Amino acid sequence: MCSCAAAYDEAMTSQSSASPVGHAAMRSANLSLLLRHLHAHGGRSRATLSQETGLSKAAVTTLVGDLAERGLVQEGEVERRGRVGRPGTEVHLDPRHVAGLGLELNVDYLAVSLRDLGGTVRATTSVPMPGADGDHGRTYPLDPVLDLAAAQVRVMLAEAEAQGLWVAGITVAAPGPVDYEGAAVRFASNLGWEGVPLGEELEARLGPDHPPLALENDAKLSALAEAPRLARRGIHDLVYLTGDLGVGAGIIAGGRLVRGWSGFSGEVGHIGLDPAGVSCRCGRRGCWETLVGFETVLDVLADDDPARSPHLPMQERLRRIRELHEAGEERLAERFAALPEDLVRGAGVLVDVLNPQAIVLGGYFGAFADLLVQPVQEALDARLLDADGRVEVSGSTLGLDAAALGGAAVSLERVLDDPLLAPPLPTRA
C-alpha cells in the first residue's frame, strides 16, 4: 500500500488530533490520485480501484462519493474483467459537467476549443487573424488581435455555460517562447511581438470573473495533445513538428514535456542550415523555416491565387492548395517533391540529438502527410547509424486544432491536480 493511501486511511479512522489542514491536503491528494487513475486507465469498480491504487475500499467509497458530488465521476456498466466473485459497478469519468478551454494565436488564424473531462471536443471556432494582409514581415497590431481573442473566448464560455459545463481554466497557445512567471510572450518573430504581456492583456479584456488563465508555447501544447495516442503504443519519446509560416517543435522525453531551463526548447525553425541562405525574420540567415515554412509553398502560387490571402480561413487555403496539386500545377508539384529533403535536413539533426521514437508532422505538414510522411520516413531510414535508432514518422491526427486542444487538455489538469476546485453540483429539490 502506498504511503499516501495509508495516511489517508489513518486520517479517516483515527481519533487523534491531526490538523485540519493536513487532513484537507491528504484528502485532496487522494482525490487527485483516484481521478487521475480513472483518467489514465478508464472505468474501474471500487474493488479494482482499491487494489490498483492501494487505498482501502472504505476510503475509495468515500472518495468516489466526493468526486461524484462535484460531477467528476459517475457509475456505469458492470465491470467485466474475468474476476472471481460478484462483479462490481464501474466508476468512470463523468464528462457532463467540467471542461477546459484552449486558445491558439497563430500567424494565420485564431482558434478556440472546448474539451470536456472525458476528452470529447464540445465546440471549436477558428477565424482569420486580424491585421494579416499578406505582409508577414510586419508587426501584427496587438489590440485587434487580443480584442478578437477575448471575444472568441467569451463566445466559448457562453457555449460552455449553455451546455452546463464549468470551465476549469483557459490555456493560451502562443507562437513563441513563453515567460511562464510573467505570463508573457518573450518573442514571436512571425507576429513581430517581443515581451508582450499576453496574460495581463487578455485578463483585462475578459474581466474579473474569467477562469484562471495560463500560457504555453503552441508546439508544446500540440505535442501534449498528440502524446496520449502514441503513449498507448508504448511511445514516450517524440517530437511534434508544426509547420506554419515558421516551424516549431514540441518535445516529449520519457513521457514528460521538455521546456528547457528558460522555456526556449523547440525553437527548431531557427536551426541554421545555410549560413549563406536567405534572411529569416529572427535576424539570422539560412534558418530551417526559410526552407520549409508555409510561405515557401505560397511563393510558388500565382500572385492573385486565393490561397495566398491571409483573410481566407486556413482550412480553405489548404483545400485550395490540395486542389491545385491534384490538378497537376507544375510549380506546386515541384515544391512538394523537394519539401521532404528540406524537412529531413532539419529533422535529421533532431533525430541525432534527441533520439525520439516518433516524429509527428503537424500544421500544414500534417495536412499533406500523404505526400510527406513516406519520403521523410525513407530518407531518415537511409541515414540510420543503427537499426535500433529508427524513428517512426506520422501525420498529426488532430490537424490545425492540435494546439488549442492541447491547451484545453492542460486546462483540465487543474482539476486532475485538485478535484476540489470543481464546484459541487446543485442539489436537487
Give your account of this protein's structure.
The protein has 429 residues and is an alpha/beta fold. The chain folds into three domains: 91 residues, Winged helix-like DNA-binding domain superfamily/Winged helix DNA-binding domain (Arc Repressor Mutant, subunit A, Orthogonal Bundle), CATH 1.10.10.10; 141 residues, 2-Layer Sandwich (Nucleotidyltransferase, domain 5), CATH 3.30.420.40; 165 residues, Nucleotidyltransferase, domain 5 (2-Layer Sandwich). It contains 14 helices and 16 strands. The strands form four sheets. It has a five-stranded mixed β-sheet. A hairpin with a 2-residue loop joins strand 13 and strand 14. The longest helix is centred in the C-terminal third of the chain and has 25 residues. It starts with a helix and ends in a 12-residue tail after the last helix.
